Amino acid sequence: MTGRAVPPRVVAAQCAASEAGFTKSCTPEVGRLLRLAAAAKPHGIIAESGTGSGVGTAWLHSGLGSRARLTTAEHDVVLARRAAGLFADDDRVHVLAGDWRLLEQHAPFDVFFCDGGGKRDDPERVVDLLAPGGLLILDDFTPSPHWPPRFDGEVDELRTFYLTHPSLDATEILTTPVSSAVVGARRL
Ligand SMILES: C[S@@+](CC[C@H](N)C(=O)[O-])C[C@H]1O[C@@H](n2cnc3c(N)ncnc32)[C@H](O)[C@@H]1O
After folding, report:
1. Ligand 1 center to residue 1 CA distance, Å?
2. Alpha-carbon distance 79 to 96, whole Å?
3. N or C: which end of the chain has fewer CB within 10 A?
4. Whose Cα sits closest to atom 19 in ligand 1?
5. What domain range is 102 assigned to?
6. How many structural domains comprise the chain?
7. pLDDT at 119
8. Percent above pLDDT 90 for the chain
9. What is the CATH number of the domain that holds 26?
10. Which of 14, 18, 24 maximizes ligand 1 atoms within 8 Å of its Cβ, making it the mutation to test the pocket?
11. What average pLDDT does the segment 3-20 reach?
């Protein structure tokens, strides 16, 4: 699967989201970033907080190495059960129904897409859970021309936290002209 094609499992997850009325799935632009990150860690422990309908999980899965592991946690048990069904044929993937902290038993992570739980409520723990060299991906930011970045007229303290964390080499990248993601690598 290369270029701009959308992997079949992502299409299946998008259909599941549409049927469930779930509107918070990641965009294809973020999805391609997730695939890249998973592919960069072919033996990696890959984690996602906030499975939703499994769209981000499916993008991560599209870059997953044969010896990698992907664990995702979703506290809405109905969403978790449906998403688990999308990956039932692949024992590299585990969908946990419950709070994102269930992921901790699988840490340290080589890739962590922190998308539901952790990002705002325990950012220091999010960084702690990364392996040396591990990649952290956080999406859904609004690009800002200011430093420190601002959102709604205020300094975006959360974004600044990740971008300046002493254990991370982090940067912000545009995913579309109006949205951005923070990507960080845990220092060795
Ligand atoms: C932005 S959506 C996830 C989208 C998905 N990662 C994707 O890329 O398609 C956030 C999800 O996180 C879940 N969530 C929120 N807080 C959580 C927590 N503390 N633990 C686990 N899941 C949580 C929500 O139920 C929601 O489904």
Report:
1. 26
2. 11
3. C
4. 117
5. 8-186
6. 1
7. 97
8. 97
9. 3.40.50.150
10. 24
11. 94
